[in-house]
């Protein structure tokens, strides 16, 4: 008997929890997305959330969803997954897993495949019927990236910060 604690969080809860926390930094009023990239030996390599590129002010660029292309957010936001990949400064992501709170779009799928990430653990798939996500799954499946839906445990974690 080692007396070890039994209610510690699992690896999946830990990494999806970090992804959720990372998404809480997003300034997007409609959808906050977080991502956490993890090595095969359970080390966190990088994190990201959706937002405008460095130097593009959150107060000056538009957060609107509609209107002229130059007046809404879609040309300007960097997705959480791409930010997590680009934030990594350590070399190769070969064999890594990305935990992400929303299924990756086609553009992030390309970056995921090309960076060597081999597994995606995702939570929401609210845009699954859109061409971007259908194309994303086509490419990810062709490339042999493992797609795994996060299994909720319903554990509640309260943080006092
Ligand atoms: N996988 C994703 N990762 C992301 O970081 N995003 C970002 C881009 C936008 O800032 C926001 C989506 O805005 P909306 O269309 O739900 O109002 O989430 C979007 C997707 C969807 O494919
Ligand atoms: Zn994307």
Task: Please supply descriptive tags for the structure shown above.
single chain, 161 residues, alpha/beta, Cytidine Deaminase, domain 2, five-stranded mixed beta sheet, binds 2'-deoxy-5-(hydroxymethyl)cytidine 5'-(dihydrogen phosphate), binds zinc ion, zinc ion binding, dCMP_deaminase
Structure description:
This protein has 161 residues and is an alpha/beta fold. The chain has a single domain, classed as 3-Layer(aba) Sandwich (Cytidine Deaminase, domain 2). 27% of the residues lie in helices and 17% in strands. The chain contains 4 helices and 5 strands; from the N terminus they run αββαβαβαβ. A 5-stranded mixed sheet has the order 2-1-3-4-5. A hairpin with a 5-residue loop joins strand 1 and strand 2. Helix 3 runs parallel beside helix 4.
- CATH architecture label name: 3-Layer(aba) Sandwich
Strands ordered across the widest β-sheet: 2-1-3-4-5
Number of strands: 5
Task: Just give the CATH class.
Answer: Alpha Beta
Secondary structure elements and pairings:
Blueprint: H1 11-23, E1 34-38, E2 44-49, H2 80-87, E3 97-102, H3 106-115, E4 119-124, H4 131-143, E5 146-149
Parallel strand pairs: 3-4, 4-5
Antiparallel strand pairs: 1-2, 1-3
The protein binds 2'-deoxy-5-(hydroxymethyl)cytidine 5'-(dihydrogen phosphate) and zinc ion.
2'-deoxy-5-(hydroxymethyl)cytidine 5'-(dihydrogen phosphate) is lined by residues 28, 30-31, 33, 50, 65, 73, 77, 79-81, 102-105, 108, 127.
InterPro entries: CMP_dCMP_dom, Cytidine_deaminase-like, dCMP_deaminase, dCMP_deaminase-rel, Deoxycytidylate_deaminase_dom
Organism: Roseburia intestinalis XB6B4
Protein name: Deoxycytidylate deaminase
